[in-house]
Amino acid sequence: MSDDVVTIHTDGGCRPNPGPGGWGAVLRYGDHVKELWGGEPESTTNNRMELMAPIMALEHLTRPSTVHLHTDSTYVRGGITQWMAGWERNGWRTAAKQPVKNVDLWKRLKQACDRHDVEWFWVKGHSGVADNELADQLATRGLEEAVASR
Order of strands across the sheet with 32-44? Predict the structure, then answer.
């Protein structure tokens, strides 16, 4: 791994879905590690929490960076790498002419990505990848803290 790359692992989820949710992110740059987490005490969805994790991680970076972003969400990776350009061309509508769900977060994610050089990677969840497991634990922490704050 190159020292000039920020490596980020993200995760998010709800219990139940929809329901209260949490997100987590692990950011690594050289020897530096930053753990981020948060949550929504009211009803949200897994997909919204999966989107919040990379948004918050990218927004946390203080200068434009080269980023390797790992997610276990095919929804997030597919959306940002395959579908978003078409959604934008179609006025934020799907190929079926329906409004894009979570458009507020997709636009925010695009804006966060535009500051950086981001390469997206999919990782199988709960497969023993240490930082993905940690991001999952942080998402659970975010959910639990959000619920406790109600």
Answer: 32-44, 19-29, 5-14, 66-71, 117-122
